[in-house]
């Protein structure tokens, strides 16, 4: 009883005398978090806070409740990319004349970041679909004395949206070829003279952009490419198996995971705060996944967190790296926060808030203030040498 009294006294004393912007000692965190989380803005969220070095649970609230992750779901995609794809590899899209007359062959590699804007493509060193379309049409006219009727396009390794974009671009130029899907081997056998080749940035750069700016399309495509590389179906079913297998291999219970997409856009996706916390902890322990954490937005500095913490918790600016998530009625955040000489892993899933931007803004501010109570820079103490004195 005496020990319990002393513990309560310690927390109460720290709450009274500790400056509002100072970080809390681990033993004081639960009481402060309970107070901050007991407010309408977050509407009974699921929360987990773990010691990043030991995995010790410092605080948890509704840790096993199934909640909507929103774009926090992209953490699974990021981890899967690192596990299954070569981060130094690049996607190539080749266009050639076919072995038969009036035939073009487009042999892609499912480039997830091919751009319809030539200006954007060149600025970001991405493959340009408009360049492919323009140059292919120009060379086709040259080869056939200006007539582009009755052309066939044999293609492989392109997304359906890429095909739709090509058809739309060419239709405006009165070019309406027949599109025929073939496999990669058939594309190679039917290729003759190369017209152009477009190459994407490295997978690592695409991953960084995906997490930094929460790109839904890239997350979906990268997740499917990861499933394909693992020998699984190139669809959401393959992604589901991929994620479940990953959790099991990491010793994490996947039974409450519900996957409807890889981006987090579906309101039917479900995770638990404990599951995401354990995933982040396991990845945090492995140097291989350093790129995942380095790719996350930084509070008040970059990506989808560039405008956060500036006014809500200025002391946390630059000290939080996390994946954001937003749906109507849902605000989530999961990542790491620097707290002096330690680092915490945190997960906050507030998916029971009211609909509308005002409610979302209040929830974000509440999460920022929560992290602001534990965020603090790690400033090592310096001991200067004592000058010698002459006696």
Automatic annotation (TrEMBL):
Gene Ontology molecular-function annotations: serine-type carboxypeptidase activity
GO BP, sorted A to Z: peptidoglycan metabolic process; proteolysis
Keywords, sorted A to Z: Hydrolase
Cross-referenced PANTHER family: D-ALANYL-D-ALANINE CARBOXYPEPTIDASE, PENICILLIN-SENSITIVE CARBOXYPEPTIDASE A
Family note: Belongs to the peptidase S13 family.
Name of the protein in question: Unannotated protein
Source organism of the structure: freshwater metagenome
